[in-house]
Automatic annotation (TrEMBL):
Superkingdom of the source species: Bacteria
Gene3D superfamilies: Glycogen Phosphorylase B
Pfam families, sorted: Glyco_transf_9
GO molecular function, one term: glycosyltransferase activity
Protein name: Glycosyltransferase family 9 protein
Keywords: Glycosyltransferase, Transferase
Coiled-coil boundaries: none
Length: 345
C-alpha cells in the first residue's frame, strides 16, 4: 500500500474514499465499518484519508488498498484532501458529524456521499459507542455492518518479548495518563512475581517510559520505543499479539489489544467505557470510577491534568485485574504459561 497521490490516476476500479484522519485507536474502532465496505462493495478500491504515520497500520487491517495522507492538529478536520484523478465513486465520512468533515469530501464531487447530518442519513447520537456509530451509518445506506467484527490478523513478525506484560503509560493528553509512579509500582510487582514486563512508548513518550522502568527497577532494556519515533508497527503488533496482557489507558494500544484478542486492563477517566471501551469479553477488563450523576463524557478527554476518575483507580485494583485475567479460549494453547500476580505490598 502506498501513500502517494499519483496512484489515484488512471485506475479502472471504482474507488471509495474514507475520511478518518485521526489516530491509531480511531482507525481500529473503524475496522468494522471498513470491513462492511469491503464486503458490501468488493469490486472497489478503498482509499483511506488518514495521517501518513498510520500507513502500515492501515495496511495491517487488510481492509485498505491505499492511504491518502491527511492530517490536522488536535483532531480537527483537514481543510482539503490531495485527491488526484476522477471523482470518487463513493465518499464516506467516518471522521465527524458536521459540515467541516463533509465539506472536503463534497468538494471532490463523489457520485455518492455517506455521512451524518444530511437528509438521507440517520440521526447522530452522542451516547453511542464509536464502533456502533459508524456501523449504524453504513447500515442506513444498505451495508450490513457488525460492530463486533473488529479483529485484525496477527503479524508474521516475531514478538520481541513473547508472553510479556505490556504497560503503556502514555496517551495523547494528560487527562488520560494514569500517574507514572503507579505504573512503576505495578511494573515492579509484576516483575517480582516472575513476569517479563515491557514498557512501551510513542515518539514523544520516551522520558515517561524510562521513568516508569527506572522506578520499577527494570532497567532501560525493558523500554520499547520513545527514542526515534514510533515503534515499527509490525513489531508493536507482534508484541501485543503475543503478550500475556496489556495494561493501558484509554488510547490506541488498548484498541490494538482488542483487535488482536489480547487480554487487557484499560484505565478510563474522562470518557466512559461504554463509548470507547472493548467489547464485553472476560479477557478485557475496564476500570472506571465515575461520580453517581456523571454523563458518558464527564471530563475533558484532551485536558492538561489527569482526570479525577482516572486517579481513583488504585494499584491494587490494577494488579488484581491482571491476576484474574483469563487467557482467550482460541489462544489458550498458544500462550506461554503465566506466573501469578500478587497484590501490592
Amino acid at each position: 500500500m502506498t501513500t502517494s497521490t499519483e496512484h489515484l490516476r488512471g485506475t479502472d476500479r471504482p474507488r471509495i474514499l474514507v475520511l478518518r484522519a485521526l489516530g491509531l485507536g480511531d482507525l481500529l474502532t473503524g475496522v468494522p465499518a471498513l470491513r462492511a465496505l469491503r464486503r458490501g462493495l468488493p469490486g472497489h478500491d478503498i482509499v483511506l484519508a488518514a495521517p501518513a504515520r498510520l500507513a502500515t497500520a492501515a495496511a495491517a487491517t487488510g481492509l485498505v488498498d491505499r492511504l491518502l495522507p491527511a492530517f490536522a492538529p488536535r483532531r480537527a478536520v483537514p481543510a482539503a484532501l490531495a485527491w488526484a484523478g476522477p471523482s470518487p465513486d463513493l465518499a464516506v465520512d467516518l471522521h465527524g458529524n458536521g459540515p467541516e468533515s463533509r465539506r472536503p469530501l463534497a468538494r471532490l464531487c463523489p457520485r455518492r456521499l455517506y455521512a451524518y447530518s444530511q437528509p438521507d442519513a440517520p440521526a447522530w447520537q452522542d451516547d453511542e459507542h464509536e464502533r456502533e456509530r459508524w456501523c449504524r451509518l453504513l447500515g442506513a445506506y444498505g451495508l450490513s455492518a457488525d460492530p463486533a467484527d473488529l479483529a485484525v490478523p496477527a503479524p508474521a513478525t516475531p514478538s520481541p518479548a513473547p508472553g510479556a506484560v505490556v504497560l503503556h503509560p502514555g496517551a495523547d493528553a494528560p487527562a488520560r495518563c494514569w500517574p507514572a509512579e503507579r505504573f512503576a509500582v505495578v511494573a515492579r510487582e509484576l516483575s517480582r512475581a516472575g513476569h517479563r514486563v515491557v514498557v512501551t512508548a510513542g515518539a514523544a513518550e520516551g522520558r515517561l517510559a524510562a521513568s516508569v522502568a527506572d522506578r520499577a527497577g527494570l532497567g532501560q532494556d525493558a523500554v520499547l520505543g520513545g527514542t526515534r519515533g514510533d515503534v515499527p508497527f509490525d513489531v508493536l503488533m507482534a508484541l501485543v499479539a503475543e503478550a500475556r496482557c496489556v495494561v493501558v489507558g484509554d488510547t490506541g494500544l488498548a484498541h490494538l489489544a482488542t483487535a488482536l484478542g489480547t487480554p487487557s486492563v484499560t484505565l478510563f477517566g474522562p470518557v466512559a467505557p461504554r463509548l470507547w471501551g472493548p467489547p464485553p469479553r472476560p479477557y478485557h477488563r475496564v476500570l472506571w470510577h465515575p461520580d453517581p450523576d456523571d454523563l458518558p463524557r464527564p471530563g475533558d478527554a484532551h485536558g492538561e491534568r489527569p482526570d479525577a476518575r482516572l486517579l481513583r483507580i488504585t494499584v491494587d485494583e490494577v494488579l488484581d485485574a491482571v491476576r484474574t485475567l483469563p487467557v482467550p479460549p482460541a489462544e489458550a494453547g498458544a500462550r506461554p504459561a503465566q506466573a501469578a500476580v500478587p497484590s501490592a505490598g
